[in-house]
Write a structure and sequence with these properties.
The protein is an alpha/beta fold. It has 41 helices and 16 strands. The strands form four sheets. Strands 2-3-1-4-7-9-8 form a seven-stranded mixed beta sheet, sandwiched between helices. Strands 11-12-13-10-14 form a five-stranded parallel beta sheet, sandwiched between helices. The longest helix has 29 residues.
Length: 936
């Protein structure tokens, strides 16, 4: 297999602009050196690539050639231009040879590999490593597995190293692996669209272009183009490029759009503040490209994009949609079909995107394809008929197993004549697409038609296991669908049907009501059992499998939940709804969960009246009410939550059950959140007795923690600690890692509040170790901050600053502005203690600036109090006394803080304290903040 060699000169454009008079001579010397050395090592120069070379080694020694080129160039005196640094990439693979040139994915990957290199660097792939001998004295540096901008499978990359090379250390490769991203790998090479990529990339480089909308009909290739644009321009966005598919977004609202974006960014909501504000705060300082795919059904929610653009100045969007968003600042890119030749004698016939896509797709079913003159003539007609639409071309190519190119065109023309006469209200482009679908259907065997129909039961990507158990379809049938381009196999081994094809297949599927209901029932049963098992596994093993697996199957699960509810499959509906509740709660997607549950409640009320009276519908309705109340409690809508919970309670039988205890727990949480500690304790104790009688350890541990929180909040620390220890013992026996970490952190807070710093530090460090192991980022930020408090009190200032800084970095990353502010205040206080007053002022200033946009009065009081302590160290005692006096009179400060502040005030002369009291009595919190800012 040949070895492909590519090279170019780093920063050659800059050198041409700066040294225009001599660069011609420099390039000639460069060309002569490379030509000589490539020939000497048995390589063939295929062509010059501007300032580089494309060569092929069928034998010889390509690695030694690359090494000698770098050594020779380094020895040359290049005069006033300084170093001439050349980067070299070597790859191997199957390629098509046409005349004196080579084409295909292997060549394209070599070019992408070259783009990742630095001047003076030699890169090679694992395949080259296995097929070439190393030069004497040379070794390879393993640079790891990298994702290249071609979006193919990740690649193992190596660097050729030798003692004689002038440079051996380089910056990180310029690959997608060097930037955060979630761009999915693609199963086939991206073909064509060079002009489109160049034009959209130019728009992206322009600061004025913040919102680019790629508009076109289904099947035109909007998604692949947007992904390739993102991959090509990844180096412009320091904080990453993220793909956000929207087609399966079932709720058309800004909140659900916010949740979907957050999920793609792996952003976790950190409080009950408006999720939209949390997301925008997170994005505020980020330099990101967000690719929003299939936006057409969310045009009504497009104002979110405008809000993000306004408040996050470094965020850019590439949108794909079938229509314009009609937003100010929207730049619309109308996407047409692939370019195709209009005559067979076009010298560039084989280089057109449409031709290359047809050939690539045809070789999946006819590997030895060679286009004849008749084929070329037919292709010109075919591309015109389908207007270059990629989906149509791929489907047409899949027919090459059974018919010829001329026959394909002949049949398509018949179908289109028929459609023209029968569906005049359908746009011409859509008639063309449907004609392709109709002909694909005609070419299928009866068995293949049945398989195609049945696969539309899946609303999203599916596994072999799912299709085997639901419809009995095996691997051979799936492979046949892939061969015919009716299915695509994703890099994660799941299969998916293009949405327009699924819509067409579903039309056929629903024509047989019995088959349709049979398979939809099996689909619901399969995902109900799967989600139930995943849910149970999570509470048994406490790992992340549940979240990851349910996320992969969420679309099919929601479809199954809707069907189960409508078709009275109560057991299945319960399993699915319970799993979705746990999933959304763990993700913090409270509003989406509440909307989902509300939708189920509405369906039940339409079907059975306001309150179903028969079992098992009644018990399912109670479950729905209970879960809706729980989610409203999470959303701090306590009155509404209590209404639904009490309604569920009335519908229960008189005897105590697990359902009734779950309702009491939620009512207890509402009492706790609203400060009614007596009622909360009474309810939790009743629940505790029930679970102790049943022997449910997990539930007992949860209630013990709830009771402990009540005692901690009311400063009854001994009782709190005893309950936390009991809960910890149970959670250790269960292996509940998250629960163990949370309890250790709570215990650490108790020890901190009771002046036991060593124990507090030990518990926080244990919690940190667990949370690092399970990658609980938000939990880590809390532990780091708490440990910083402990170390600060121990006067271990540098260590405290280190942990505070780690907490601050995570909170900034997550967009937790409350947490950012709190941590800044803590860091500022440490800087004040160690007399780094400039750094302290910066922290307090930023904290106050953040607080101006938050409704967080307790944190504001805490901040101004810390500023007063800082002013004391700066000998601004009158101002500090005014602030202390204000804090002492604020009910928001809490009794413990007010008591401490009153002791501080008592140390001042009585006359000064009286003057401060008079001034503070006439000041608002805003007045206090203004005075602080003047003096920072």
């Amino acid at each position: 297999m040949p070895i492909f060699f590519l090279s170019d000169i780093e920063k050659s454009t800059e050198k041409w602009e700066k040294y225009r008079d001599i660069m011609g001579q420099i390039l000639s010397r460069h060309d002569a050196i490379l030509t000589e050395l490539i020939s000497r090592h048995a390589g063939r120069v295929i062509k010059h690539t501007g300032d580089g070379f494309f060569a092929v080694f069928d034998s010889g020694d390509p690695l030694l050639c690359a090494l000698e080129i770098q050594k020779r160039l380094a020895r040359e005196d290049w005069g006033q231009i300084g170093d001439l640094r050349v980067r070299i990439a070597l790859n191997t693979g199957e390629a098509e040879q046409r005349a004196d040139d080579y084409f295909g994915p292997a060549i394209n990957r070599t070019a992408r590999l070259l783009a990742a290199a630095w001047g003076g660097q030699i890169l090679l792939t694992d395949a080259v490593k296995s097929n070439c001998n190393l030069p004497e004295g040379a070794d390879l540096i393993d640079l790891g597995i990298h994702f290249l901008p071609d979006l193919g499978e990740p690649l193992s990359i190596y660097q050729l190293n030798h003692p004689d090379l002038p440079i051996s250390e380089f910056p990180a490769l310029r690959t997608l692996s060097g930037r955060p991203h979630n761009l999915p790998a693609q199963p086939t090479e991206f073909i064509g669209r060079d002009k489109e990529i160049k034009e959209i990339s130019a728009w992206l480089r322009d600061p004025a272009h913040r919102l680019i909308n790629i508009v076109g009909p289904g099947g035109i290739g909007k998604t692949r183009l947007a992904l390739q644009v993102g991959a090509t321009n990844f180096d412009q966005f320091n904080h990453g490029v993220f793909f956000i598919p929207l087609e399966k977004l079932t709720f058309g609202s800004i909140q659900f759009l916010v949740f979907t974006i957050a999920d793609a960014l792996n952003f976790t909501f950190y409080s009950r503040e408006d999720p939209k504000l949390q997301l925008i705060n997170y994005l505020h300082e980020k330099q990101m490209l967000l690719i929003m795919d299939n936006f057409e059904h969310l045009v009504g929610e497009a104002e979110l994009l405008s809000d993000i653009i306004l408040q996050a100045p470094k965020i850019k969007f590439v949108i794909t949609s079938r229509e314009r968003l009609r937003l100010k600042g929207e730049y619309v890119y109308e996407l047409e079909g692939l370019e195709y030749p209009d005559r067979t004698d076009d010298p560039d016939f084989d280089d057109y995107g449409a031709v290359r896509l047809f050939v690539q797709s045809s070789r999946n079913v006819q590997p030895d394809l060679a286009l004849t003159a008749e084929d070329r003539k037919a292709l010109v007609r075919l591309f015109k008929l389908v207007a270059g639409v990629p989906l149509c071309i791929e489907l047409a190519a899949s027919w090459m197993r059974t018919v010829t190119c001329p026959e394909i065109v002949q049949e398509l023309e018949k179908s289109m004549d028929f459609l023209d006469s029968t569906v005049q209200d359908l746009p011409k482009r859509h008639r063309n697409l449907r004609a392709v679908f109709e002909y694909s259907w005609v070419l299928l065997t009866e068995r293949e038609k049945a398989v195609f129909r049945k696969l539309s039961v899946f609303s999203a990507a599916f596994t072999r296991d799912a299709t085997q158990k639901i419809s009995g379809i095996g691997l051979a049938d799936i492979a046949a669908m892939v061969d015919k381009s009716l299915l695509r196999r994703r890099p994660d081994s799941r299969y998916e049907m293009y949405p327009l094809l699924r819509q067409y297949a579903e039309e056929k599927f629903t024509q047989d009501p019995n088959e349709y209901k049979f398979l939809m029932d099996r689909h619901a049963s399969y995902y109900a059992i799967r989600f139930k098992e995943l849910d149970e596994q999570y509470f048994r093993d406490y790992d992340d499998t549940f979240l990851k697996s349910l996320a992969e199957d969420a679309d099919n699960g929601r479809q199954a939940l809707t069907w189960s509810t409508e078709q009275d499959l109560v057991a299945e509906a319960k399993f699915l709804l319970n799993a979705f509740y746990d999933y959304y709660e763990m993700k913090g997607w409270f509003l989406e969960a509440e909307r989902l549950i509300a939708g189920i409640q509405e369906k039940l009320q339409i079907k059975y009246g306001m309150e179903p009276v028969d079992e098992p519908h009644r018990s399912f309705y109670v479950m729905v009410l209970r879960l809706r109340g729980a989610m409203l409690r999470n959303l701090s809508q306590y009155d509404q939550a209590r209404t639904y919970l009490e309604k569920a309670q009335r519908l229960l039988p008189g005897s105590e059950t697990g359902d009734s205890m779950s309702i009491l727990t939620e009512l207890g949480m509402i009492a706790y959140r609203t400060g009614d500690y007596g009622q909360a304790r009474e309810l939790f104790q009743k629940v505790m007795k029930y679970w102790e009688d049943i022997g449910n350890a997990r539930k007992i541990a949860l209630v013990l923690n709830n009771l402990g929180n009540i005692f901690f909040d009311t400063q009854v620390y001994d009782e709190a600690l005893e309950l936390y220890e009991k809960s910890l013992k149970i959670r250790r026996e269960l292996g509940d890692k998250r629960g163990i970490a949370a309890i250790l952190n709570n215990m650490g807070s108790v020890y901190y509040s009771t002046d036991k710093p060593d124990k507090s530090e030990d518990h926080h460090r244990q919690s940190i170790e667990i949370r690092q192991a399970i990658n609980d980022r938000y939990g880590l930020s809390t532990c780091y901050n708490n440990l910083g408090l402990v170390l600060n009190n121990q006067e271990k200032y540098e260590e405290a600053i280190d942990f505070y800084s780690q907490a601050l970095a995570i909170k900034r990353e997550m967009g937790d502005m409350w947490g950012v502010c709190n941590t800044l205040v803590n860091i500022g206080s440490v800087y004040g203690d160690i007399k780094k007053n400039g750094e302290a002022r910066n922290c307090f200033r930023e904290a106050l600036q953040i607080l101006s946009g938050l409704n967080a009065q307790p944190l504001l009081i805490h901040t101004v109090n810390r500023c007063a302590e800082f002013f004391m160290s700066e000998d601004k005692k009158p101002l500090a006394l005014e602030i202390f006096t204000f804090v002492a009179g604020s009910p928001v400060a809490g009794e413990k803080r007010r008591a401490i502040v009153r002791k501080t005030i008592a140390e001042f002369p009585a006359a000064e304290a009286e003057i401060a009291a008079k001034k503070a009595a006439n000041m608002s919190i805003d007045d206090i903040v203004r005075e602080i800012k003047k003096n920072l």
